[in-house]
Every structure is written in C-alpha cells, then in structure tokens.
Amino acid sequence: MEVIILPGATEVGEVAASLVADVVRANPAAVLGLATGSSPLGLYAALGRQVAEGDLSFSRASGFALDEYVGIPADHPQSYAAVIEREVVDLLQFRPSRVHVPDGRASDLNAACVRFEDDIRAAGGVDIQILGVGANGHIGFNEPTSSFASRTRVKTLAPKTIADNARFFEAASDVPIHCLTQGLGTIMDARRLLLVATGAAKAEAIAAIVEGPVSSMWPGSILQHHRHATIIVDAEAARRLELAEYYRHTYANKNPVS
Ligand code: GLP
C-alpha cells in the first residue's frame, strides 16, 4: 500500500487526478470505478480542467459507480445517478451510455445487483477504482462488519452514515435507509485502488485502515490486502498515522520508475 501525505485538499485532488489521468492516457478505453461524496470532487475538478484544455479524453472510457440509494426518486439531485451525471459524466465528457450506476429503483433489487456485476465483468473489470472513506471506515456503502467476500448487494446504512449524509438532504429523515453498493469483494477485484481522504473527521478511519489490523469493523482496512492500492490524504486526515514520517520520506524519495 502506498500512502501519500500532502498539505491540503487541493494537492490531494491534483496528485490523485494525475494518477487517474496516467491510467486513461495509457489506455483511453479504461474502466473507472467512480465514487460519490465530497472526497473525490477535487480529483474530478482537476481531471475536468485537463479535459477542458484538451489534454485528456474520457470519450472511450467507461465508468461504474460504487453505490446508490434505494428508492430515491430518479430526479432527486442527491441520487447518486444524478450526482455522477453532474460531477463526472458532464464534467469529464464521458459517453453517458458507458457509465453505469446500480439501479436503486429496480422492482427486483437483487437482480439489479447481479446485472451490475455482470456489466462490470462484460466491460473487462475495473482498471482503477476511485474511493472515498466514511468516518466509520466504510468504502462504497460497505458498513462495518461487511463481508470481505461481498458482491454488489442491498445494505442498510449505519446511523452514523445517515447522520453524516444528512447534510446533503433537507432533513436526516429524508436520507434513504437502504442502498445498493458494490461489495468489498467487487472493489478488491479492481486492478488498482485509489482512496482519497481529507480533513480531521477522517483521521481515525485513515489510521485504522492504513495501520490497524485488517478487520471488518473498519471495512477499508481490506485495502491492505490489495496488490496495488494508493491512499492519498491531506495533513489533517493523516494526523493519527504513527508512521507519517516514513510515508513522507518514501514519497519524497519515490523511485522514478515505480
Ligand atoms: C458516502 C459514500 C462513499 C463515500 C463516503 C464519504 O456515504 N457512499 O462512497 O466515500 O460516504 O463521503 P465524503 O467523501 O462526502 O466524506
């Protein structure tokens, strides 16, 4: 696992974007795993600037969102389908038909999850999965005690997640209780993982994920078992890392060929 500590959110977005851009330049038909939430917005904005300047194109790339709320109206601005369309598809000029979001309004939710997994497989798997992390360590909506073997499925949101996400809704009671999320097993199948986190509210989760024991109590700790995972954090999110000096030293002396 590579841990990169940068001064602030701007630098996190820029460096994370350069990693994603490298993947897309090497393979313009790359398959991206797309996270919602506030964490990757700086990354998307930085990629958007490269697209606007004509330095990068997602016209041949595909995308798979991590998760979606169950039952949220299709036109609700906080449905992840709407967020992905606004923050990613429009900004990065993906072809809309190549971007998939789990269908949280399907009459058969289990079938929708199977279909989503089939679509990822048919696309050849995810080349780079972008991730944020919840304050309780969730990735996607894989709440604490999620199985490391899990696939895309229905989950119940933790009260902490509902409280954290209430800021996007008029009231906490408007936050859906259920969601569809890629499983931890699904996420781990991606060829590369890139997790971004900023701010002191993420410090406990980052310490647990990077340096704690691998435990389903902190679902993101499964990244320790991935062969190509990069975690990019700002100084605030890094402040509980015991080996912060080592990560800074490693990054400052990064082998140019790696
Ligand atoms: C949300 C999403 C996650 C996201 C996380 C953190 O509930 N389902 O994919 O990574 O919580 O959100 P934020 O980046 O806004 O802190």
Describe this entry's structure for a reader:
By secondary structure, the protein is of the alpha/beta class. It has a single domain, classed as Rossmann fold (3-Layer(aba) Sandwich), CATH 3.40.50.1360. 34% of the residues lie in helices and 16% in strands. It has eight helices and ten strands. It has a seven-stranded parallel beta sheet, sandwiched between helices. α2 links the parallel β2 and β3. α1 packs across α2 and α2 packs parallel to α3. The longest helix has 18 residues. It starts with a strand and ends in a 6-residue tail after the last helix. 2-amino-2-deoxy-6-O-phosphono-alpha-D-glucopyranose binds next to α5.
The CA-CA distance between the termini, in Å, is: 13 Å
The unreliable regions are: none
What is the total number of structural domains? Answer: 1
> Class in CATH?
Alpha Beta
* Tally of helical segments: 8
The percent of residues in helical segments reads 25-40%
* Beta strands, count: 10
Question: Which structural category fits the helices and strands?
Answer: alpha/beta
Beta-strand percentage? Answer: 15-25%
